[in-house]
Write a structure and sequence with these properties.
Blueprint lengths: L3 E2 L4 E6 L5 E7 L9 H9 L18 E5 L1 E2 L2 E2 L4 E6 L21 H7 L17 H17 L3 E9 L2 E2 L10 H8 L8 H16 L6 E8 L13 H9 L5 E6 L10 H4 L3 E4 L2 E4 L7 E2 L2 E2 L4 E7 L9 E4 L6 E4 L10 H20 L2
Antiparallel strand pairs: 1-2, 2-3, 3-7, 4-7, 5-6, 8-9, 8-10, 10-16, 11-16, 12-13, 14-15, 17-18
Helix pairs in contact: 1-3, 3-8, 6-8
């Protein structure tokens, strides 16, 4: 099923953007684990809308109510079910879109698949709103991983044509992640961050939107985790990350740049460091044959520009078959990338926790 993920920890996400609530069921969590609800709330606040003028003005508290699976915030072995109420919807903004599918949205494809019964309000179950329960599940998994010495962090790697400094693929560490968590706009190079903000403001002023990339790293990963062929770490992370609406591409390590290299440059020489086998470089991104090598796992994903923009666009009336001009109302992010950073971390955490608890 499309809303389910995982083998050992099974995640099921439910709800729609404008339904009464959205939520997640997490099955397979070890009993006796105490969930730090302050940490989960802080993690989710990084994704929440309406925090500044770089995001949609739709404000949602994203307050999580755990219905089952814990006693005094300690897991009891039963499936954990958590819900988040949708309290600030404006469904009327979407009335005219029932017949006019929005360019680059799921509207048309979903209408064809579900014979017109798809929930158009806010994008229904195709909405980025569903990344809120994803983030809660990821936040819980991150706490489990932290106890095992595994940490995950991400930053905005680019917005439009402006690039941030990249993680050091060999030396990226927990301090790098902690420094990013102190920032409301998570970039390594503050000056580049200013240029990124300008790209977002310029797009917004022109009734447009802009995309970008996010870089994520996982440190403390043991050697030998993962499987070849269809169940490799790249496969599983890619699957989870593509569950985030607007993701259009992913690469690990040197990624597509490796296609421009000679083998002698792309290969990572093995070295001995304090009696442990490491690699001198990390073009492989911490994964060999689908299995962790002990080096930091590093990947980047591409986020498309928000398809809901203020400019006039063309659509086709699905009832009359006539072309019509369309101006999208409602409240939308001029750039999704900043709020997607914790979503990418959450997706990675769910995958790694699923492996570690095998």
């Amino acid at each position: 099923m499309s809303c389910n993920f995982g083998n050992n920890i099974k995640i099921t996400i439910f709800g729609q953007s404008h339904s009464d609530a959205i939520g997640v069921v997490i099955d397979g969590l070890p009993a006796g684990f105490k969930i730090d609800t302050e940490k989960t709330a802080a993690f989710m606040a990084r994704r929440a809308p309406g925090q500044n003028d770089l995001s949609t003005p739709r404000k949602e508290a994203d307050e999580v109510k755990i219905l089952s699976g814990v006693v005094d915030n300690v897991t009891c072995g039963a499936p954990l079910c958590a819900v988040i109420e949708n309290t600030n919807t404006r469904s009327g903004d979407y009335d005219k879109l029932r017949l006019l599918p929005r360019p680059s949205h799921s509207d048309f494809a979903a209408m064809m698949k579900h014979n017109g019964f798809n929930d158009i309000r806010g994008g229904g179950n195709f909405s980025g709103r569903l990344t809120a329960p994803l983030c809660f599940a990821g936040a819980v998994c991150m706490q489990i991983l932290e106890e095992k010495g595994i940490r995950i962090g991400a930053h905005i790697s680019s917005i439009g044509k402006t690039d941030d400094q990249k993680f050091d693929p060999v030396k990226v560490n927990v301090d790098d992640f902690d420094n990013l968590l102190k920032k409301t706009f998570p970039v390594i190079d503050e000056k580049q961050g200013e240029y990124m903000r300008k790209e977002i403001y310029d797009a917004k002023a022109n009734g447009d939107s802009v995309g970008g990339t996010i870089e994520c790293a996982i440190v403390g990963m043991p050697v030998g985790i993962g499987d070849p062929i269809f169940d490799g770490i790249e496969n599983r992370i890619s699957s989870a990350v593509f569950g985030i609406p607007a993701v259009k591409g992913i690469e690990f390590g040197a990624g597509f740049e490796s296609a421009r290299m000679l083998g002698s440059k792309n290969n990572d020489d093995f070295i001995s460091v304090d009696g442990k086998i490491k690699t001198a470089t990390n073009n492989h991104g911490g994964i060999l044959g689908g299995i962790s090598s002990g080096m930091p796992i590093v990947f980047r994903c591409a986020i498309k520009p928000t398809p809901s923009i203020g400019r006039e666009q063309q659509s086709v009336n699905t009832e009359t078959g006539e072309e019509e001009r369309l101006v999208i109302g409602g409240r939308h992010d001029p750039c999704i990338v900043p709020r997607a950073v914790p979503c990418v971390e959450a997706a990675a955490a769910i995958v790694i926790a699923d492996y570690i608890l095998k």
